[in-house]
Design a protein that fits this description.
Elements lengths: L1 H14 L9 H14 L6 H25 L1 H6 L15 H20 L3 H20 L6 H21 L4 H22 L3 H7 L4 H5 L1 H25 L4 H20 L8 H25 L1
Helix pairs in contact: 2-3, 2-7, 2-8, 2-13, 3-5, 3-6, 3-7, 5-6, 6-7, 7-8, 8-11, 8-13, 11-12, 12-13
Length: 290
């Protein structure tokens, strides 16, 4: 019984690519600690845990829903045919139930944070779940994905302060264009399939070469906001070390991926972006307190 439970947990963690939580988690932590520092709030482990749980539940719901809505597309795509739902490891109804439970847990958790977060929770769910349909009718679905992840630092800031401010929005712009840029790179591997199935994406719309150029432009905008955030926030040396590492890793992934050579795509997408977000957040938080 216990082994079966562990197996089910492992299957669902694989379904939502739990390891990719690392992309958004550091920015949620940034939003939290920036809010605590800028508003003169005292550190609350309870509130931080609630914020991280919200991010976890929201991401589980979004990824699970994406896998559910894409199950027929995934089944016909050789790259994704072995995913849990098309491979019949997880039944579609079970995946949908998983989405519903995580969505409810997200809303319930916001209730224990503050009223504003609670009232805005359905709006956040609408954005992150709505992304799953956008690739069917718009080429810029990458921006919708970026928008969904960019809500993490804003949500964390609202959890601490209960009010909107420019600071978390600037962090969100960093996330928005960073995520949109690397999602365009990720979409390159499905270029032929998407073209055949008439699915929308920037690579299908612009071609591989121009898609990489647009990705680089989005990443340039992200770096500009990194600089603006550091300047407006009057950060010190530790922040700028983290910002430099973040920038260099972004540049490096563009040197790795070529229009006709995607052999290093996984390194560029998973490894470099995960390290970039983690180190940037760590150096930012260190700068806040030292």
């Amino acid at each position: 019984m216990f082994k079966k439970f562990l197996s089910n947990v492992t299957d669902f963690m694989s379904l939502v690519k739990f390891a990719h939580t690392l992309f958004a988690l550091p920015f949620a932590c940034m939003g939290y600690f920036v809010a605590v520092n800028s508003e003169g709030q005292s550190f609350s482990a309870r509130l931080l845990i609630l914020v991280l749980l919200c991010m976890l539940f929201a991401r589980n719901a979004a990824m699970g829903f994406n896998r559910y809505t894409d199950r027929f597309i995934d089944r016909s795509n050789p790259r994704t045919a072995l995913r849990e739902i098309p491979a019949e490891i997880i039944r579609p109804n079970s995946a949908l139930f998983f989405v519903i439970i995580n969505s409810l847990l997200f809303i319930i958790t916001t209730f224990f944070i503050n009223r504003l977060c609670f009232f805005l929770s359905p709006v956040a769910l609408l954005v992150i779940l709505g992304y799953s349909f956008t690739k069917r009718f718009m080429s810029f679905s990458h921006l919708v994905l970026g928008l969904g992840l960019s809500l993490a630092p804003i949500g964390a800031y609202l959890a601490v302060t209960g009010k909107f401010a420019i600071i978390p929005i600037s962090i969100s712009f960093i996330v928005l264009f960073w995520v949109s840029g690397f999602d365009i790179i990720y979409a390159l591997q499905d270029y032929d399939f998407d073209l055949k199935r008439k699915l929308k994406s920037v690579p299908v719309w612009l071609g591989k070469k121009n898609a990489l150029l647009l990705s680089a432009f989005f990443h340039l905008i992200s770096v500009v906001f990194v600089v603006l955030f550091g300047w407006v926030g009057e950060f010190g040396i530790y922040y700028w070390i983290g910002a430099l590492i973040f920038t260099l890793l972004i540049v490096y992934q563009h040197l790795l991926v070529k229009p006709n050579d995607l052999s290093h795509l996984n390194l560029a997408f998973f490894t470099l972006n995960g390290i970039a977000s983690l180190l940037y957040a760590v150096f930012t938080i260190v700068d806040l307190y030292f």
